[in-house]
Amino acid sequence: MTAECRFTQAVLWVQDQSNTTPQREFLASGSGWPTRYDRNGTSVAQEGNNGAGEGAFSGHPGMEANSSGKEWTATRRLPQALIIGVKKGGTRALLEFLRLHPDIRALGSEPHFFDRHYARGLDWYRSMMPKALDGQIVMEKTPRYFVTVETPPRVHAMSRDVKLIVVVRDPDFLGLQRIVTDKHFYFNKTKGFPCLKKPEGSSKPHCLGKTKGRTHASIDPEVMQRLRDFYKPHNQRFYQMAGQDFGWQ
Ligand SMILES: Nc1ncnc2c1ncn2[C@@H]1O[C@H](COP(=O)(O)OS(=O)(=O)O)[C@@H](OP(=O)(O)O)[C@H]1O
């Protein structure tokens, strides 16, 4: 597999949050996140259908109170992390499984803001995001940002601190407290992939949709070899950029 990286700031990332102090049971991390946005200055979001999977975080509604009775208000903020990457790289699986973590608030659909809807402006983009409490990480995934030349300067103009999670293959994990483990999954033999036992906001098992985990056509070994030869130099370039040899064959 190959990837041409057009992001000058692309990182196969992630921030170490190991020394952050848990703020409460489900806000185990996050204070180490750089924020360029004035969280107090963000508009308190209006209710509405933004495709963000509202209610998916049903255990954590808009208003929360801590043990001293102080309230936290959930607001809509611009994302602090974007999942981008190669097509069919497993970006949906990464997002769906990450959002099991209570410190993650993720938009369910792909907003395609930086590549298709940029003219709508940042307020529109923010209104698409799910509400989040201070300390929660807001993220969205639009793999196509990875291959559209106009995206990097636009992301940079929004925030120089936004984290890019580039899925090329076997994505590594965020520096989150370990909450999501194999006990959250079961292997669905028919699908041939792990599925969630209990997705966010539901008690029913859930596999990713039918466009994920499709039956693949068998490919002539000669064609496979030609593809490998073709991608080899591109992979080498990518290893150099990423500073890591992934050893893809
Ligand atoms: N748990 C689970 N369930 C289903 N599918 C899984 C899972 N984990 C990884 N995958 C792989 O994810 C591939 C789809 O990748 P993306 O979500 O990035 O696709 S897309 O580019 O956004 O359309 C999808 O590609 P296909 O097998 O070609 O359908 C899968 O190989």
Automatic annotation (TrEMBL):
One Pfam family here: Sulfotransfer_1
This enzyme's EC code(s): 2.8.2.-
Keywords: Glycoprotein, Transferase
Broad EC category: transferase
Molecular-function annotations in GO: [heparan sulfate]-glucosamine 3-sulfotransferase activity
Region spans: Disordered: 38-71
Source domain of life: Eukaryota
Domain called Sulfotransferase: residue spans: 79-171
Amino acids binding 3'-phosphoadenylyl sulfate: K88, G89, G90, T91, R92, R169
Catalytic residues of the enzyme: K88
Gene3D superfamilies cross-referenced by the UniProt entry: P-loop containing nucleotide triphosphate hydrolases
InterPro entries for this protein: NST/OST, P-loop_NTPase, Sulfotransferase_dom
Family, similarity comment: Belongs to the sulfotransferase 1 family.
Listed PANTHER family: HEPARAN SULFATE SULFOTRANSFERASE, SULFOTRANSFERASE
Protein name, entry field: Sulfotransferase
